[in-house]
Fold DNA-directed DNA polymerase.
Amino acid sequence: MRKPETIERLYLDFDGFFAAVEQQCDRRLRGRPIGVVPFDGTDRTTVIACSREAKAYGVKNVMPVREARQRCPGLVLVPQKPDLYRRAHNALLSEIETVIPIDAAKSIDELTCRLDEADRHDPVDLARRIKVAIRENIGPWITCSIGFAANRQLAKIACKEGKHSKGSYGDGLAIWDPEDMPEPLFAVPLDDIPGVGSNMKVRLQMAGVVTTEELYSLQPKHMRKLWGNVTGERLWYALHGYDIQAQPSGRGMFGHGRVLPPDSRTVPAAREISRLLLTKAARRLRRENYYAGGLWLWLSTRSGTWLGKTELPIVRDDQAVLKALTGLWGQVEKAFPRGVMIFRVGVTLYDLSPASERQLDLLLRDDRTRQRWENISQAIDELNARYAGTVVSLGYWNPPKGGHVGGKISYTRVPSAEDFW
């Protein structure tokens, strides 16, 4: 395994991305503390993103609006505009690629690049050129923090540390040369190490590991044992500066979830929204050429989370998945005969198989019916693609208040244009 002797990776993270895009596009919001919320007109929701001005008051992402207003009475609430953020993402990547090729967009607000020989010798100038391209061609309200290191994982950690350097937030720069390591890494809290979540932190503490330096001092096999798989050993090599390449990840599921507006928190309203979300998930399933063998429906209620699942006969058409969803809502009505207040609803198609590997259920013998429904779903998809919108659907199409069905702020993937039809 190769251990680079110089920096080879750049990791870039846009600062307060969603709020910054709002400020760049609406001059009335510039310089003001703003919080991006799922929908307008109510305090019974959560701030899902906030500007640096709001963060200075102690407002944080995923904070209840009422608490955020207590910390920052002048907080301006802005309903989310997911399609705007998607278009801003594409525009920003286009500008960055005029300076350096992008190796991978890790999320809508993070990306990584490989460095050539010239950039390795002058990372400060490279960071300056990237920031100048964004400032002059997009605007000054969208800034980014950049980390340089021997591998992607260390560059990501450096980027996060640079974001909060010198007592300020954003527009940072951190360069971790291999010859200076591992001292900069030891200053990083254990919580900020990618792969150390809350549960893993507890497990490490039980093993006597409470600092990053103590984690660094473990042996690779010991970390593998603590994690229970090869992820721990791979993290050891990453922290020690080895060139660890991310393992290709296969598609595991297609799903959508949504926080419900106050007037849509009944069983009938949540059921209708789940139907639209599942239709969107099935469209994505077909676009990426998969079949699904199972469906989850999950609900967040005042008393906790309800989860139901059902098997599917390896399908991809709207009729089959919507029929299965109807059965799951029947379970909900049995579980809550008097009704229940639902705050969030989600649907997930899982147990995926590529279209080329589909295996039919010989006992079910419904392939002819399935093919007919698949042809209908394909015809619907083609019509919607022609008009870049949902003009045809299986059942009534009435998106809920507060934005797009299936197209929302995403921290784990970059939405496509089709998500907003």
About this structure: The mean pLDDT is 90. The radius of gyration is 24 Å. Residues 267-287 form the longest helix (21 residues).
